[in-house]
Amino acid sequence: MVSIEHIVQRAVNPFDSTTFRPGNFWHDDCDPNATIESIHQDIVVEIDRVLDLVRVDGRSRTILLSGDSGSGKSFLLSRLKQSLNRKAFFAYIGPWPESDYIWRHTLRYTIDSLTYVPDGQTESQLLLWLKSLSAFRDRGFLKRIIGERNLFVHNFKATYPTGIYNANEFFSVLYHLADPQMYALACDWLKGDDLDEESLKALHVNSSIDTEHKAQSLLGNFGRIATATQPIVMCFDNLDNVDRSDRGYIDLQALFNVNSIVHNQKLKHFLVVVSIVTNTWNENARHVQPADLARIDTELHLRPIDLDRAAALWENRLNPLHRQADNPPPSPLYPLSRSDLDRKFPGNQALPRSVLMLGRKLFQEVKSRPLETAVSHFYREEESRDRSAYLVARDGKIDPLAAFKLVWEKELAIVRSKIQSIRQFSAPELMQMLREVLEALDVTGVRPRLLESPTYGRYSLSFYWSFTLGRIGVIWIEEPNLVSFCHVMKACQEALQKNTCQFLYLIRAENLGVPRNQGYRRYKQLFVDSIHRHIIPDIESIQTLAAYHHFVNTAKSGDFVLCDRVLSFEELQKLVLQLEVFQECRLLQNLDVFSHDLGSLLDLEEHDPIDRAKEYIFALVKTQQLVGRTVLVESTNAQFPDLERPAIERAIEDLCTDERITVLNPDSALEEQLVGFLMT
Predict the structure, then answer these.
(1) Same domain? 98 vs 203
(2) With 618 labelled, which of 119, 162, 198, 586 sits at a CA distance of 20 to 30 A?
């Protein structure tokens, strides 16, 4: 018989803070069963009502969704996407790195979101949108136009004779979306990638979307055509890490400029949802023009939940454990109780995150309480080792480094599953992510825009190692367009001539061109047989930068939770330094930020994945204090799917041999064995 007490001892804490992950709802595999329908149901109903208005009359509307940090704003956006995706297309818009790039940023995130496949569907939102148009519902017409791009464009221009920007090129790209061989390239153009001449020719277009006006106009095209399909819901989130104005406050005015243009120019069929922390809104709303504030149609505020809903949150997290027990537990909240909530929240109100954090703390206390008894029960009296060596702290406190190790590994795994190409990020985003990491590493004098060009400055930054070495410049350009590459190389030459910097790194994985190209010749003069260096970035490095960028977004929004605490941005920076999560990032190593060995391109050895798995196992046991061996193997396998289970078992045995963890009952069957943290 399996008792609930034994299940609690073996389980990973169901309230663990690694599950508190606000962010892009297209990157999160949110379990619909985790939703408590009664929480914020009034907000969901109101947003559904406003969306129906957009569906009926086509007029775009704006909702301001505010709430305290921990009130569940990001989770609510994910819930809206799940419940309303049948009647609208959803786009997640993350923080923009540069305000003069906001339209292109919005377009890029919108198209990127449209490439995701909704639950229950087999095709992306973009293809569902395209195939819901009248031409694609006519099977006979569709059959006739295969291979007939001109006929396709002509038909769409007849359907939409006015209101479409650059109709020939736009409809030509839509035509190529229907071709699986051209779909990815067509998406790249729609996102605003600066494509090379060959790609543009294949799509039958003359130029890329390289200005704010073009990006704005293209979004208008989607709204114009959406009147025949479904509205597009644009969700702006994590606004505490957006570009800042000259006076130092976050530039919400840029966002509300976009919103006002959506209204003033009557861009159709958009629902704009602005999700923001209440304090952030109160501090920054006064910097937004009153006329732009007037364009907010509805203001909604997430309030704390009552304790009945708080208890439902606990019950939802505990239910999977209860189902494993042979006999029903004493209550739906066991091993917790309603009285725990009453004592902690005497006012009968609490933020959802506070409820979950309390659940984690109390569950951990219950989980570790019987450890002393477990040692006495499972170890024979003739064992020579002092059993007290196996006891862990019983005050519920967890080593923050071990906890952060788990959070970091989980985030890295999610990012690696979603980010497969460097060009998933724009140039401003790449530079922002690199700048954030350099600042976390306390690199001196990090500044954006080394290059003076207003167009190509966003591809660059600079910093100091020491004042004797001078200023180090970093140029990062991944756009395939070799004309743009040539202009950037010319700007680099000018920067060196003006002594703006003394040393240059070029980061680029894309094609450099051929000897007859002027850009290639300039590249060769600068970076071949020179003190300046060219670095080819690897995708693993970009994934590391992206993982940290997500943590920066959440920390600046007051949403970075570790164990029982909300950590500040400064505390996050200290943790990444202590854990040395960037030390194995090949890009940073080749930038010499650790060695300060100017211009040395390192021949780096691959890190053995089993070592990372061992550190993960140790951190998991240390934070859980007591965990079932089979649960430990399954959790590690989920985190490192490329590792076979026998390898994970060997890793556990190695950690036991090194006396970092211990199996409390090694003579029991595997499914009965408990693994504890060995204190020394």
Answers:
(1) yes
(2) 586
Do 569 and 615 fall within a single domain? no
Token pair belonging to 163: 């209101």
Query: How many CA within 13 A on the CB side of residue 25?
Result: 29
> What is the separation of C-alpha 179 from the centre of its chain, rounded to a whole number of angstroms?
29
On whether residue 43 sits in a domain, the answer given is no
Asked if residue 197 belongs to a domain, the reply is yes
CB 236 within 8 A of CB 109: no
Which residues span the domain enclosing 420?
A: 400-573+588-593
Regarding whether 413 and 320 lie in a shared domain, the answer is no
Q: Residue 429 is encoded by which pair of tokens?
A: 């985003």
DSSP H or E stretch at residue 466: none
- Asked if residue 503 and residue 361 are part of one domain, the reply reads no
pLDDT, tens only, 505-540? 999 999 999 999 999 999 999 999 999 999 999 999
What number of H helices and E strands is found in the chain? 29, 17
> 384-417 burial string, b = 16+ CB within 10 Å, else e?
eeeeeebbbeeebebebebbbbbbbbbbbbbbee
Q: What is the pLDDT at residue 382?
A: 38
Residue with tokens 């943790």: 575
Angle at 582 between CA 578 and CA 585, to 5 degrees: 160
Once rounded to an integer, what is the mean pLDDT over residues 252-274? 94
